[in-house]
Amino acid sequence: MSALDSIAGDAQADFELDAEPLSRAEKRDQQTQRIMEAAKACFVRSGFQGASMHQVCAEAGMSPGALYRYFPSKESIIEAITEADRRHDAEIFAEMDKNPCVVDGFVNAAIAHIRYMHESGNAPLFAEIRAESMRNEAVELHCHNAMGEVQTTFRRYLEAAIERGDIDPVVELDVMLPMIMAIGEGLALNDLPAQGVPIERIEALLRVTVEAMFRPNHPK
């Protein structure tokens, strides 16, 4: 990307951001989202190692100076992407507590996450981030923290259900939770709906699996 293109891109960005009376924070959020979307495209197309910050600049239509005001490195972009997904997951899993049936609450949340991963097209990006986490300590830390928060949410949810006598899991939670996380990660990575597997069939099989693991105490 030439210097002229960079200037033109930055000018276009300023025009877009000034087209509506947005606050400074809103403008910053728009630019941040713009960079994150550009980075996602580059990471999926070239891989985390293959993509450069220069490529992200070109994809976003921004000069390096403008982009580095928001993100100093690719790792910092991954951190922002992971944090955005963490917040979205927290909203989905918060709905579990509103359902009086433990199995329904868990299955509905899982299906909502599967649907989100499919509709957002984030499965290839998620696969790239997980692969990078195996060789990059900074990325691994972001993934570990995000996955750890989800697992903690599940633990609290299931511990409360056990205490109420709603479920009697087939194995202890220290064994079940890593298994649940592994299954969830596999579903996210494989994006079964994109392979032609209907969501309702995934839900049916997931429900049978969850009921077998949780062993709900159905009222007589």
Automatic annotation (TrEMBL):
Domain HTH tetR-type: 29-89
Entry-linked InterPro entries: Homeodomain-like_sf, HTH-type_TetR-like_transc_reg, HTH_TetR, Tet_transcr_reg_TetR-rel_C_sf
Keyword Plastid: no
Annotated keywords: DNA-binding, Transcription, Transcription regulation
GO function terms (MF aspect): DNA-binding transcription factor activity; transcription cis-regulatory region binding
DNA-binding region location: 52-71
One Pfam family in the UniProt entry: TetR_N
Protein name per UniProt: TetR/AcrR family transcriptional regulator
